[in-house]
């Protein structure tokens, strides 16, 4: 189940951004032409200049990238080439008696930095109040085209990334069998693994219930698939549906329909890229939470700098339309489509599903929903704290649920 030796023929990798790249970024930030953003104090129209300007000024003069770089380099990491594309990943061994190898797949717009808080509790549960028997060998990649896994091929999408991740775990790291976890776009990668490579998968754990084949409908750019709010919807349901659309509609539609058009601006303007990322982080995070407390500015700017210096914004955005251009084709017709056993952690601060306000309602929405039959479900839980960024916003819940899932499978 696990690989006993240090990965062979792998040289440790260290993040070390050239100073000239940081100097160029600072120069661009200091020359920002700020938008005169009238009547947008409440961010009715999107990220406001009033919010963005002090953050950009701090990014240009105050933010210490080298300190963050040191934090990112605190864990052992590597960079390899698989199928013609680079893959950067952290690999941290578990300290329990029989660690389960676990690949953690993040979503958009996340780098591997989003998942680093999981390393301690998962690899060394005894040091975090847990049972050593629950330990994992943790592998945290930047998905190809994201973060430090650049420059990537232009044809990548979730199921092609799944093929790469399988080779990382089996051919590069030498695991016969392994586990996988994922949220957002990483949940699609996880599902593609659980479908095609179920014989190699010990189990799966999810932050969202996304089966393979997503974006295969005729209106692939429209998460509502053209549905209107029912005329008899309760005020609560109507508000929830309106919030769902305002949270996710522009993201999916623009990434699907104008990936490169958008990228030309974001790849050239750090404030433009930051605004686009920030809108997602602010809008998708816990609707009941304190964003400033949960997403400190140094964390935000570390992620933004990671995307900027790697020019990863465009390659990560392209993953959406590539799910349409290169559609997923099932490897078999067995049911459920994702055969590997799976657990789920749902957080109620997300905009989806609309009109759901209690743990019981969230679990029922899944159990009675359209995706339930796609999975071999062995564990489902929901929690009030946290939004869309599941294992970053509520790592305690995610780790606890993940441990329960794999206790059933060890």
Automatic annotation (TrEMBL):
Matches recorded under SUPFAM superfamilies: alpha/beta-Hydrolases (SSF53474)
Gene3D superfamilies: alpha/beta hydrolase (3.40.50.1820)
Residue intervals of the Epoxide hydrolase N-terminal domain: 11-111
Entry keywords, A to Z: Aromatic hydrocarbons catabolism, Hydrolase
Pfam family, one: Abhydrolase_1
GO BP annotations listed: epoxide metabolic process
Domain AB hydrolase-1 stretches: 132-201
Family per similarity comment: Belongs to the peptidase S33 family.
Protein name: Pimeloyl-ACP methyl ester carboxylesterase
Protein's organism: Nonomuraea thailandensis
Taxonomic lineage: Bacteria, Bacillati, Actinomycetota, Actinomycetes, Streptosporangiales
